[in-house]
Amino acid sequence: MATDSKNGPITSFVPAEHQEAVSGALQESLVDLIDLSLVAKQVHWSVVGPRFQSVHLALDELVADARGFTDEVAERATAVGVSPDGRAKTVAADSALDEASSEFASDDKVIRVITEALAATIVRLRANIAKVGGDPVTEDLLISVSARLEQLHWMWEAKSV
User: Fold this and answer.
1) Cα–Cα distance between 97 and 145 in angstroms, integer?
2) Residue 19: its pLDDT value, please?
């Protein structure tokens, strides 16, 4: 059992030599997933166009998935002894995603925005998967999140063809 006094009261089973990489990977993934849910919700409110209904409903699905993954990643961080930081200022400063506009946007533009947001999230998730090989539990979690987001990326990208 590895413990690290800077992690606070929770005992970590992650080997000491992997704690920093696991902690960083979980934090980066957390902020991207929070931001993904926020970007998707923002464009959910502002989408207009002939495919409004189908895009609007697909955004609900994406938001639900992103919020669920956010909780899983945050709880994993806590389980390994790291207090996750999902505060608005942290997400705004550290997210890999582009900021979503607050203006009304055509369904075609929303599809592009979401496809790009998913891609940015997936790229950093895959990089984080590579960083956490010393902790197969965290690696498995990030792989499962990436698998679902890659499926959603395909579905969103298919809307633009």
Assistant:
1) 17
2) 92
Beta pairing partners, 48: 106
What residue spans of the chain are helical by DSSP H?
A: 16-46, 52-79, 88-94, 107-131, 136-159
How confident is the model over 102-113, as pLDDT tens digits?
999 999 999 999
**Measured between alpha carbons, how far is 151 from 19 in angstroms, rounded to an integer?**
30
Q: What is the chain's alpha carbon radius of gyration, rounded to the nearest angstrom?
A: 17
Average pLDDT of span 116-127: 98
**CA 38 distance to own-chain centroid:** 10
Average pLDDT over residues 20-48: 97
Q: Residue 6 has what pLDDT?
A: 54
Nearest to 96 by CA among 133, 51, 128: 128
Q: How many CB atoms lie under 10 A from the CB of residue 126?
A: 14
